[in-house]
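Input sequence (102 aa), recorded before submission:
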Amino acid sequence: MYLPAGLHFNLGLPATLTIDAAHLKKEEPAIAKAVTVARVASPATVDKTLQSACLEALKEWFEEYERVVCEGDVIGVEIDEEAAKLTPKQVGPEDANDHDIR
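Predicted structure, token format:
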């Protein structure tokens, strides 16, 4: 059986894994009022042209389904880097001295 890398990490990187229905908890998990998310540095997450796409993908990930997330979990989201780089950038006051924006 193959596991997604994020799930393997979130389970504590076990060498072996046994799934048994008898050990699954039946109670409802606690519902958080707020969640703090931090990015894992990668070429995509530190690229300012992809920042909006990363945030939008994360927002969609949480809105798509009810999720069970534990402290320390890694959440992987998919973005289309080419499409994100083609999306027009919103120009704000902080970009006034940016000579590449015309």
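Checked by second reader. The chain is about 30% helix and 0% strand.
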